Structures are given as structure tokens and as C-alpha cells.
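Quick one, T. Sequence first:
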Amino acid sequence: MEIRFQNSPKETSRMNTAELRSNFLIEKLMQDDQVQLVYSHYDRVIIGGAKPVHQSVELPNHPELRADYFLERREIGIINVGGAGEVKADGELFSLDKLSCLYLGKGVKQVSFSSKDAAQPAVFYLLSAPAHATHPNRLFTKNDAQGGNMGDQATANKRTIYRYIHADGIQSCQLVMGLTILEPGSVWNTMPAHTHTRRMEAYFYFDVPAEQRVFHFMGEPTETRHLLMANHDAVVSPPWSIHSGCGTAAYGFIWGMAGENYTYSDMDAAPLADLR
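C-alpha cells:
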């Protein structure tokens, strides 16, 4: 499990491209028949990927957690962006089609991932945060999620939002999680931008065509930077940073948050005219 520490706004404003990528970009998150994990000291979230192809893979424990098992003091959100798959949690089997979300609460001891068809493997994105209480395991399909259509084709940001883990959906201690799908011809997400200093955020981009890229914008509103993102890349967004993107084609992305505030709509607007 890779460990990443925090970076201050002042430090980040002086980083070159390679330094920005090494601190905030997570590449190659999905590896065949493996679980990849990155521990971020922003609100101590763990960002991960599991791609079972030819065999089942288990959620590992790591000595850095000082725990008897991964979810001893944690909760986790799991969203499948690939073919049909299954997650087994302490013997209970959950089937996840594409864009289904599974929440597993504190205290689940054994978690494994598998695909129903090796030719179309499941691709599970994972986001975990510390938990102080136990909430029930729960599965949502995209039809169960709250959200709706937003944006307009005229501004190239027509999109559909699916909210899974939040105050009015799947209950959790501090995880908030969902995803956004852009319509063909739309490329902008989360613009006008915002920050929320009470919680960090992570983005995971999917359904990005192999020859296309997404420009992910980050940094303080008056000190913006960008990262070039490929399919199945993730990015850590500090609480002081904007998080917005523009692609060379339509795409989808999973957003997830953890921190002090559990309210989805808690945002500090960064007006477009004020960005630098």
C-alpha cells in the first residue's frame, strides 16, 4: 500500500508537472487479478482498485493500519465500472452490474472480489475512510441512486449525476460517494468550480477512450494547475483545492469525499471570473 502525505497550498503552487503528478495523480490503479491501494493523509482515506479477471482477489490488510483486518475501524464504498461482478463480505454475496455501488460497514472481516466473465471483467473502484460506528451493508444500483440531469449542451456540460452514499441515501459515518456521466458532446464537469475545506475529495475517471484524455484542474482558485488523466486514473483533491475537469471526449467519473462535513451540498463557490 502506497502512503502519501499532505501538501500545503504554498508548496503545491511551486510544483512542476512531474511533482504534481507524483503527489496527486494515481496511475495504473486497475491491474489484472490484483488489489491496488493508496493511503492518503488527507482525512486518511484509502483509494483503491480491484480487477479480478481469472481469479477472485481479496481485500488485504496492511501493517500500516495497525488493525486485525482492513475494516476493523474503517468503512468502504465500492463502485463497479466494468462487467458484471460479485463481492463477498463475510460470506454474504452481492452482485454488482456496471455502475452499482456497495457499502460495507465497520467490522466486516473478509472481503473478496470476482468477475462473472473473464472476457468482460468487473472493475471495482474502492474508497475507504475511518469509521466510528457500524452501518448496515447496502447495495444500490444506478436506478436506486438519487440525482438527475444537470448542465446544458450549450455549455458542453450536460450530465447525469448519481448519488449513492450520502445523508439521504446509503448511510455511512463520513463517506459521501457517487458518480457523474457526461452526455456525448459534453466535456466539462464541476464548472463553475468549488472547494470544501471541511472534507477532501477523490476523483476516478472511467469510460475515457484510450486515445482521449481529461484535463483535471486543481489548486487554489487563484493558483490553478492541471493534470492529464487517462482512463482509470484517480486524483487526490485536497480540501483547499478546486476539482474540475474537461475532456477531449465524453467520459464518466466517480467522486468521493470524507471529512468533517457529511452534507453533499456543502460547497464554497469559486466563481469563474475569479479563477487564475
